[in-house]
Amino acid sequence: MALFTDGSISSIEDLAAQDSQLLKVANVEGIDVTQKLALAQDELALELGKLLTRSRYLRDPFRLDPLPNIESVVVTPALKLWHTFCALEAVYTDAYNSQLNDRYSGRRDQLHKMAKRAYESLVEAGIGMACQPVAKAATPSVAAAPGNLPDGTYYVTMAWINSSGEEGACATPAAITTSRTTVLVQAGNAPLNATGWNVYAGTDPNALWLQNGATMAIGDTWLQPAALAAGGKSPGSGQSPNYMKPVERLIQRG
Predict the structure, then answer these.
(1) Is there a single domain that holds both residue 8 and residue 109?
(2) Phi, psi of 38 (to 5 degrees)
(3) Residues 10, 76: one domain?
(4) CB atoms within 10 A of CB 218
(5) What is the pLDDT of residues 85-103, one digit of tens each?
(6) For the chain, which has fewer Cβ within 10 Å, the N-terminal or C-terminal residue?
(7) pLDDT in tens, 173-188
(8) What's the pLDDT score for residue 253?
(9) How large is the greatest C-alpha to C-alpha distance in the chain, in angstroms?
(10) Which residues pair with 10 in a beta bridge?
(11) What value does the mean pLDDT take over residues 5-26?
(12) Phi/psi at 24 (nearest 5 deg)?
């Protein structure tokens, strides 16, 4: 699972899976679905901020869990579904406002109810939180270096690791073509909670494998040996929640 702040929670493909007419409606009405995804996520950030703030004020002073913040929120299935339906609702709201077509308004109202149910599921389950959130890595810098890696095109990605050994979301892979050389990989600036990093590589962007035997230290570079590991651990999607933050329903008195 990724962090809320790692990027867009849902994709256009996620929206299309819930609504087969999405792409047709967006094309006919000239709607930028990517923009609707971003706006929906901004709205969710505001709502989550309110929920976390309320939880912070009502927090039991004897509890030792970290104070919640949006940077620590993990994308759970309920949160992703909430985002998907909110973005779809925004698309159909825009379509209705453009044409005042009752068919669009009916779908908009249906999606509003579905978004509300997804929100209620999130409230019931709690908000997924990471104790040591590790941001998604940026695409690493890759360059040719002296070595004997077989000639070909290689794809390389990386992920940051925190002190508990939890891995953040992997970067978008970089591509490089070698000719009687090997690959030198350099990570970018480490996020605050990172203590190391892993490197993944392969000849197919959809089949990458862990290359380093031990976690790489911050500031170290990776020189790919002649043999490319082709099996074992593949890139993950990010951290899982360390705990579920209950959403307080009580009104503080006094």
Answers:
(1) yes
(2) -65, -45
(3) yes
(4) 14
(5) 999 999 999 999 987 888 8
(6) C
(7) 999 999 999 999 999 9
(8) 37
(9) 74
(10) none
(11) 97
(12) -65, -45
| Tens digits of residue pLDDT in 118-171 | 999 999 999 999 999 999 999 999 999 999 999 999 999 999 999 999 999 999
CA-atom Rg of the chain in angstroms: 22
How far apart, in whole angstroms, are the C-alpha atoms of residue 25 and residue 4?
A: 28
Assess whether 16 and 106 both reside in one domain: yes
Interhelix angle 102-125/77-99, rounded to 10 degrees, is 160
- In the chain, DSSP assigns E strands to 127-129, 141-146, 152-162, 174-178, 181-186, 194-204, 207-210, 216-217, 221-223, 243-245
CA distance 99 to 106: 13
Please indicate, yes or no, if residue 240 is contained in any of the structural domains. Answer: no
* Host domain of residue 127: 4-131
Q: Is residue 104 located within the same domain as residue 149?
A: no
End-to-end Cα separation, the chain, in angstroms: 39
Q: Which of 81, 104, 131 is the last residue of a domain?
A: 131
Residues 113, 36, single domain; the answer is: yes
CA distances from 224 to 40, 219, 231, 232 (A): 41, 16, 15, 16
Of 131, 160, 180, the last residue of a domain is 131
Same domain, residue pair 106 and 185: no
Count up the domains in the chain and report the number.
2
Verify that 51 and 169 share a domain, yes or no. no
**What b/e string do you get for 70-103 counting C-beta neighbours within 10 Å, with b at 16 or more?**
bebbbbbebbbbbbbbbbbbbbbbbbbeeeeeee
